[in-house]
Design goal:
The protein has 110 residues and is α+β, with helices and mostly antiparallel strands. 30% of the residues lie in helices and 14% in strands. The chain is globular, with a radius of gyration of 16 Å.
């Protein structure tokens, strides 16, 4: 996710399920997740605001937020921070990918 691309909600055609699935992938994949402001509350692109690349301004009025989605993101962040089994690196062989996490000195794969 990047400020140079469309918002997740718009890219998935407004589908809540695909938006959540994308968030799961972002927050469980190795590396630092990039979340554009407003994605966690379900903001969509605003093509009529070209000087902001369609992203629009942050909606600060919480009445306009998708609170269930916000709570979902918060829970995913807590899972990422609190689980010793979240991935820290990604390895690729010629035929498959594996995601690794070290628990102490012992590697755990998934």
């Amino acid at each position: 996710d990047s400020h140079d691309t469309g918002r997740i909600r718009s890219l998935v055609g407004g589908c809540e399920t695909l938006h959540r699935l994308t968030a799961v992938v972002q927050l469980t994949y190795p590396g630092v997740p990039g979340i554009t402001y407003g994605d966690e509350i379900g903001m969509e692109d605003l093509p009529e605001v070209p000087y902001l690349r369609g992203l629009g301004c942050m909606v600060w009025d919480e009445a306009g937020w998708n609170h269930d989605l916000f709570d979902f993101y918060r829970d995913l962040v807590a899972l990422r921070r609190g689980s010793p089994f979240m991935p820290t690196e990604c390895r690729r062989s010629t035929k498959r990918w594996s995601i690794w996490r070290r628990h102490g000195r012992r590697p755990v794969t998934g």
